[in-house]
Every structure is written in C-alpha cells, then in structure tokens.
C-alpha cells in the first residue's frame, strides 16, 4: 500500500468518525429536548428536567441548574428585590458561619445574567478587609445575609434580609431568590 492510499483511508476514517459523533450528539440533544416524561416536570410554564444532582431548566436559551424544584421552596417567604439598579450589594457578617461565597456565586451569577453587578460588602469593619462596609440604611440595593432561627427573606430599609439558620437553608434561599429573579416564582 503506498503512502497516498494510506493517507486517503485515514482521511475517510476520520471523516466517518466525525459524522458519527455529530449524529450521536444531535440524537442526544433531541432526546434531552424531548425529555423523558418521567423525569420532567413543569412549573409556571417552565419545564424542569431531572439530571444527576438536581434539576435543569432553560430560560432564554440559557441553562440553569437547581437542587430544588420551585414547589419545594414555595413555603419560604420572600420580600421584594430591587433590580432597578446596575449594582446590588451582597452584605454579610464576617463573623457568621453562613457560606457567603456559595451564595455570592449562585445569586451573583444570576444577577450578572440579568446585567446587574453583584458586589460583596460587610456589615462591620471587624474581620473585613478591602471591601466596603454597608448598612441597610444606606441608599443602595442590598441582599443582607443574616444568621437566624428561621428561613425567610424580608425587606428592611434598603435590604432584602436573607435569614437562614444554616448553610442548607441558605442554599434553599439562594435558589428561591434565583427563581424570583428569573421570573419562575413571584
């Protein structure tokens, strides 16, 4: 077999391989879009597809992953989030055990998707460096993470106070806020 014949056979093999991969990808995407009815649910006109570790929905051609379905979070009271601004401060107590980084990544990512810049801030100077200190009385839009005995989000001055007793409850609150921001829940 000469070099030229071998080269053409390799090209034909690679071309065939690429076509098979493209067809398989298209079939996989079509199956996902159609979804398995047993692993799909709908809430307020939004379709949720079960995946490993949670649920996926598509909003404006953007995929969003969640651990909880909206109906699992309906019991969490929710105040008003002021989204009529280009920046929202996520204020936290530096001495609390609540995972502000996880909250900031989840809710902050949704804010950025909406064209709003999330900015971390502390509620006091102690234990906080290189970021601003903010209070709910300041004239900014803010989400204030607070340790408490209940899981709820309520308005106080210029803040939506996000109160949770632990990080599991904070995770639920972060998803409840994301659903509100995305228009899935009121």
Written overview of the protein:
Helices cover 33% and strands 27% of the residues. The protein has 186 residues and is α/β, with parallel strands linked by helices. Among the domains are: 1-34; 87-182, Rossmann fold (3-Layer(aba) Sandwich), CATH 3.40.50. Helix 2 runs parallel beside helix 3 (167-182). The model is unreliable at 5-36 (pLDDT under 50).
Stated plainly, the CATH topology of the domain at 87-182 is called Rossmann fold
The description of the largest β-sheet is:
5 strands, mixed
CATH architecture of the domain at 87-182: 3-Layer(aba) Sandwich
- The topology string of helices and strands comes to HEEEEEHEEEEH
Q: Got a strand count?
A: 9
Going across the biggest sheet, name each strand in turn: 6-5-7-9-8
Principal-axes geometry comes out as globular
Instruction: Please compute the radius of gyration using only Cα atoms.
Output: 23 Å
Mean of residue pLDDT?
A: 84
What share of residues is helical?
25-40%
The tally of helices reads 3
In the predicted model, the low-confidence regions spanning at least 5 consecutive residues are 5-36
**Helix/strand structural class:** alpha/beta
Question: Layout of SSEs?
Answer:
Blueprint: H1 3-34, E1 40-43, E2 46-51, E3 54-59, E4 62-66, E5 87-92, H2 100-113, E6 117-122, E7 142-147, E8 152-156, E9 159-164, H3 167-182
Parallel strand pairs: 5-6, 5-7, 7-9
Antiparallel strand pairs: 1-2, 2-3, 3-4, 8-9
């Amino acid at each position: 077999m000469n070099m030229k014949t071998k080269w053409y056979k390799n090209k034909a093999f690679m071309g065939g391989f690429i076509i098979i991969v493209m067809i398989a990808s298209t079939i996989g995407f079509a199956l996902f879009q159609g979804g398995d009815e047993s692993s799909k649910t709908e809430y307020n006109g939004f379709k949720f597809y079960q995946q490993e570790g949670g649920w996926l929905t598509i909003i404006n051609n953007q995929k969003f992953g969640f651990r909880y379905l909206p109906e699992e979070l309906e019991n969490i009271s929710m105040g008003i989030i002021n989204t009529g601004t280009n920046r929202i401060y996520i204020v936290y107590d530096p001495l609390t055990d609540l995972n502000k980084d996880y909250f900031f990544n989840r809710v902050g990512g949704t804010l950025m998707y909406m064209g709003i810049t999330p900015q971390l801030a502390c509620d006091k100077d102690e234990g906080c460096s290189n970021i601003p200190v903010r209070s709910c009385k300041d004239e900014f839009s803010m989400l204030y993470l607070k340790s408490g005995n209940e899981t709820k989000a309520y308005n106080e001055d210029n803040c939506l106070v996000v109160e949770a007793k632990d990080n599991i409850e904070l995770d639920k609150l972060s998803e409840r806020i994301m659903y509100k921001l995305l228009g899935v829940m009121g």
